[in-house]
Task: inverse folding
């Protein structure tokens, strides 16, 4: 292969561009000179052209290895679009019959076909290898090369064998391309492909037009609907981790007036293609998708990418956010973060082989570090990909939430030291939740079995909340003072760095998460109710006074009328009828009918007196629950079915079943669980908890645990709280 003189002539002829982008010309020249080439270029940087142009002007056929059939089809269609000959590019994979395969081989032999897209599995077939030996191969291109590395976010074992197969076919240069690779992944790719001497071209991974934001996952459905409504008519992608969530959330967006479609690997090919085309042709504004969507989707004007769930690695996150703003226009990348989601992914990893588990865990730790960082998110991301960034003067320096609204930092040195000492003194046997229970002085089965209640450190941090200590522990993991042994389901161990910190502690800055705590408190997160993000503080004061008055009339505590999150929601929705009141979080028909009249009458007057323009936008319409747990649970409780049997019948954990029951009673529906509770707690015990709740300011779980945590476990207290709300408020 030789350089082809002025490449810009061919660029104009085939692609219609006047000039190359970035390092494209250098890359192409290196390949034409017969050198191996490694290309690291972010999504939208023009990777495909780096092998398409040299293939079109070289003798022979270029073999392009690609991981997805859908991606190959898109690429082939694109290449055929720039050539007068349909047969310039072909696909060779399992979807072809014998006649089609013969046609492909004939076109290659005749020299018409310049690009052949193959899946790595196809390359292993002896009949294909024998055929390739008989034709001129211009070069091999390995697209999505991160699939080769076990450290890559989309590892494919069949990619590991590519070098061996290429050697069998014959000698030709190799170009490997990827849009996401950390230095570790890059090294792995080059070693595996035997191209350590390759010319390496690395474009900047900085996408200055993208704005990065991470929000706590509170009231996420409403937050996302509001976010999309504010960008009406703009294209966006919402990524979810499970197919079930994709289907549910797409439906929720649809009933809220958003043109949304689902996309995941469980849909048949015809539906997937139709949905993809609807998005490209702007018949749909939003695609709700799993990671199956996006590879090769060349839509330049995607204006936002939302991660409903945090992905399993920062490579995935970077690649998925990279689908926004490819035309250099606006691109908003919003991720919703809840550490519980990470714990679910960790549980999933615990069943994997050790090597895969360790890799997966490290990748997850990076995701947590990114979500919880208080530094420039852009700097964090670019550092992860081995690139330095000036967060003051760099391009896009102010384009993330942390730089726009810097968090206040506090020194948690003494608290970090306390955590590490307790890990050491308990002989490294505790998981995060158990460790936090020990710090705040909560007794549970682990505390009892190791008899930790008698230790001096038991309850040493009870002046601070659980969530605070969990944040400190996570930061200690992220900064490599502690590590989780995932094969022992997350037991915490000290690193050498952690042991050193105990001996000579140093400044340990963490972000003061005041707003997050306020949101979590308001969210009533332990009762399954979630709070909005913006409040009418003036109205809130009036509603609290009104609630107190109504509670007094009924002889019940205020929270039994409406919980705080329900009042918060009223200050956003301004419901002026009983029907509208049922759209408020935690308010079902029963509760609205029983207590709602004075509230909606007061709000109607308030709205009129203050000239408030009510918006329909924030009223989230919900999709009927197909699983129908609510109806099933109410009927089962009426029939006095055992809770364990109920949970098993609906594939719920006991925790999930109790959450469903909490949701039912907090919305005002009767649910008499006395028959079950009487087997758990005797009459005196029930009376003790009932009397406490009757006098309490609120019914938060932390309140109950503080009072009774040494006597009753959390499950018993939650059940008793359900009975109390049922008896006094419904």
Result:
């Amino acid at each position: 292969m030789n350089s082809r003189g002025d490449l810009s002539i061919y660029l104009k002829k085939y692609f219609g561009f006047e000039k190359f982008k970035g390092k494209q010309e250098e890359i192409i020249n290196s390949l034409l000179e017969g050198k191996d080439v490694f290309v690291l270029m972010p999504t939208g940087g023009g990777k495909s052209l780096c092998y398409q142009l040299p293939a079109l002007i070289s003798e022979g056929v270029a073999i392009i290895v690609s991981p997805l059939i859908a991606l190959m089809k898109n690429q082939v269609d694109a290449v055929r679009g720039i050539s007068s000959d349909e047969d310039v590019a072909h696909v060779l994979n399992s979807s072809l019959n014998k006649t089609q395969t013969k046609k492909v081989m004939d076109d290659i032999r005749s020299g018409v076909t310049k690009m052949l897209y193959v899946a790595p599995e196809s390359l292993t077939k002896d009949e294909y290898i024998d055929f390739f030996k008989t034709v001129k191969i211009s070069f091999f291109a390995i697209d999505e090369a991160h699939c080769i590395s076990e450290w890559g976010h989309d590892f494919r074992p069949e990619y590991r064998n590519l070098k061996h197969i290429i050697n069998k076919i014959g000698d030709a240069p190799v170009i490997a391309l990827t849009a996401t690779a950390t230095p570790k992944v890059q090294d792995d790719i080059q070693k595996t492909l035997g191209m350590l001497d390759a010319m390496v071209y690395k474009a900047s991974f900085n996408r200055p037009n993208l704005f990065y934001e991470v929000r706590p996952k509170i009231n996420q459905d409403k937050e996302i609907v509001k976010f999309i409504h504010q960008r009406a008519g703009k294209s966006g992608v919402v990524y979810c981790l499970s197919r079930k969530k994709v289907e549910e959330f797409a439906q929720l967006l649809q009933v809220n007036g958003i043109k949304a479609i689902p996309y995941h690997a469980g849909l048949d090919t015809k539906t997937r293609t139709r949905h993809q085309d609807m998005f490209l042709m702007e018949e749909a504004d939003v695609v709700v998708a799993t990671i199956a969507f996006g590879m090769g989707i060349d839509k330049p004007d995607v204006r936002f990418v939302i991660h409903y769930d945090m992905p399993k690695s920062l490579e995935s996150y970077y690649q998925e956010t990279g689908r926004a703003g490819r035309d250099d226009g606006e691109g908003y990348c919003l991720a919703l973060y809840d550490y519980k989601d990470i714990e679910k992914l960790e549980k999933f990893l615990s069943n994997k082989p050790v090597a895969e588990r360790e890799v997966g865990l490290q990748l997850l730790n990076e995701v947590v570090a990114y979500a919880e960082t208080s530094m420039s998110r852009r700097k964090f991301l670019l550092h992860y990909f081995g690139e330095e960034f000036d967060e003051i003067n760099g391009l896009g320096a102010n384009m993330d939430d942390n730089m726009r609204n810097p968090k206040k930092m506090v020194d948690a040195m003494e608290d970090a030291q306390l955590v590490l000492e307790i890990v050491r003194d308990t002989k490294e046997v505790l998981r995060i939740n158990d460790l936090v229970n020990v710090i705040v002085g909560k007794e549970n089965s682990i505390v009892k079995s190791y008899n930790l209640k008698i230790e001096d450190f038991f309850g040493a941090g009870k002046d601070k909340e659980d969530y605070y200590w969990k944040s400190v522990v996570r930061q200690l993991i992220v900064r490599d003072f502690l590590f989780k042994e995932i094969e022992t389901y997350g037991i915490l161990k000290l690193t050498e760095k952690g042991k050193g910190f105990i001996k000579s502690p140093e400044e340990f800055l963490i972000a003061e998460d005041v707003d997050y705590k306020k949101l979590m408190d308001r969210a009533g997160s332990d009762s399954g109710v979630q709070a909005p993000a913006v409040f009418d503080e003036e109205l809130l004061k009036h509603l609290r006074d009104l609630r107190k008055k109504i509670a007094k009339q009924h002889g019940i505590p205020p929270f039994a009328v409406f919980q705080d999150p329900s009042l918060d929601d009223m200050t956003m929705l301004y419901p002026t009828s009983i029907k509208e009141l049922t759209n408020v979080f935690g308010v079902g028909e029963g509760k609205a009918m029983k207590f709602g009249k004075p509230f909606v009458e007061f709000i109607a007057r308030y709205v009129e007196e203050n000239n408030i323009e009510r918006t329909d936008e924030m009223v989230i319409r919900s999709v009927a629950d197909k699983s129908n747990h609510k109806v099933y649970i109410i009927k089962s409780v009426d029939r006095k079915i055992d809770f364990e049997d109920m949970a098993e019948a609906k594939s719920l954990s006991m925790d999930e079943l109790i959450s469903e029951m909490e949701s039912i009673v907090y919305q005002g529906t009767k649910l008499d669980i006395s028959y079950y509770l009487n087997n758990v707690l005797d009459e005196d015990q029930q009376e003790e908890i009932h009397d406490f709740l009757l006098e309490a300011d609120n019914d938060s779980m932390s309140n109950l645990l503080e009072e009774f945590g040494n006597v009753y476990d959390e499950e018993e207290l939650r059940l008793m709280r359900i009975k109390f709300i049922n008896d006094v408020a419904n």
Notes: The chain has 34 helices and 17 strands. Confidence is low (pLDDT under 50) at residues 514-534. Residues 473 and 653 are 26 Å apart (CA to CA). The longest strand covers residues 210-216.
